[in-house]
Design goal:
globular; mainly alpha; Arc Repressor Mutant, subunit A; Rna Polymerase Sigma Factor, Chain: A
């Protein structure tokens, strides 16, 4: 870091650590690889912090570095990007279905989150990435386009297709043989088993 205060680097970049980890977990599907990817991202960002333009979107800059490192180092190992299946509470959960809080521990909420996770995993990687960047990380269309290197129209069409596929998958889960309302112990359809 030429002519840059290390404290400035920390103050500028550390607030995005959790977002970077979630994105790395999405890309790698593995906790250890996600941690390594975030560490490499911070090392590279520190090395090139003199190129960062103050006042620009630091989170997008860091996510771009992370994605480029992933493509360069990890893409050769695995052609398919999967969302990791974490078992411990507090680990990566990209989204919660509408009306379901992440903190809600009820059976119905856990089933809804599980169904959403399965629906996300069913999406092709290029669609899953766009919907998670938009809906979980809050990036706008232009920022997503810059992050993943595609035109604005492509981002919009991918997001549209991703959301439609998610709706279709979630509708299939809801109306399947063990739908949310038909599962034992779930209000609205409790049965004796």
């Amino acid at each position: 870091m030429k002519n840059k205060d290390p404290r400035e680097f920390e103050e500028t970049t550390l607030p995005f650590l959790d977002s970077l980890y979630r994105y790395a977990a999405l890309l790698t599907g593995d906790r250890d690889q996600a941690e390594d990817l975030v560490q490499e991202t911070y090392l590279r960002a520190c090395r090139f912090f003199d190129r960062y333009e103050r006042g620009t979107h630091c989170k997008a800059w860091l996510m771009t570095i992370l994605r480029n490192i992933f493509i360069n180092q990890y893409h050769q190992r695995s052609r398919e990007v999967l969302v990791s299946e974490f078992d411990e509470p507090g680990d990566f959960e990209p989204l919660s279905p509408p009306g379901v809080s992440r903190e809600d521990g009820s059976l119905k909420s856990r089933i809804a989150r599980h169904d959403l996770k399965k629906a996300l995993e069913a999406l092709p990687a290029h669609l899953r990435e766009v919907v998670l960047l938009k809906d979980a990380e809050g990036f706008d269309y232009k920022e997503i386009g810059r992050l993943i290197g595609v035109p604005l129209g492509t981002v919009m069409s991918r997001l549209f297709r991703a959301r439609n596929q998610l709706k279709r998958h979630l509708k299939d889960y809801e109306s399947g043989p063990f739908s949310v309302t038909d599962r034992p112990g779930v209000s609205g359809g409790e049965r004796d088993v």
